[in-house]
Amino acid sequence: MIKLAKIVRIDLNRVDLKLEKKVQCFDCKSRCSDGFLSFLFSKKNQGILTVAVNNRNDTNGHLVDKHDFFKENHQRNDVIGLKFNETEIFRMAFILYGVPIFNIVAMLIIGYFTFQKLQLNSDIGGVVGLLIGLVLSKTIIKLIHKKLKPKVEFFK
Description:
- The chain is of the alpha+beta class.
- It folds into two domains: about 1-85, no CATH class; about 90-145, no CATH class.
- It is about 45% helix and about 20% strand.
- It has helices at about 35-45, 85-115, 120-145, and strands spanning about 1-10, 15-20, 50, 65, 80-85, 150-155.
- A hairpin with a 3-residue loop joins strand 1 and strand 2 (about 15-20).
- Helix 2 packs antiparallel against helix 3 (about 120-145).
- The radius of gyration is 20 Å and the shape is rod-shaped.
- The chain starts with a strand and ends with a strand.
């Protein structure tokens, strides 16, 4: 997956990139405009991706510049390309969609049968399990999202 971004801020330790809006990924045929990456990164950050430079493992950054791309002469407002690893995108999509579905269904079933064993209303147990699954899924996604740094190749 290849996406364009503009350099918003650049300094010694980090670079802020803004994903170009309404630009289809070059190797994609779905025409979703901003697509999955914008959904993944832009909710709280208004489409700004933070890149940790100097091979520093910045815990606040979304991406890490492992190949020292930003040591070259780059300036603010330069447009660069980001090539995301397909396997990483698939893994992020599975975490974002698969983990919640699994948790919700599992907790719904567990709640249903637990309430049934306790001789309580099993339908209410299913709803309680569903709610617990939602909260658990949100917590797990937040924890994983902080550690998730997809592999990216930068290019001009």
